[in-house]
Amino acid sequence: MEVADPDEPDEPEDLIEERTICGMRLEKTGRGCYLAYSQSRPETAYAVDINAYNGLGSCECDDFRFRRYPRWKTVRQPFDVLRCRHLRRVRTHVLDQIIKFYAKAEQQQ
Ligand SMILES: [Zn+2]
Question: Of 5, 21, 54, 85, which residue has the fewest beta carbons closer than 10 angstroms?
Answer without folding.
Answer: 54
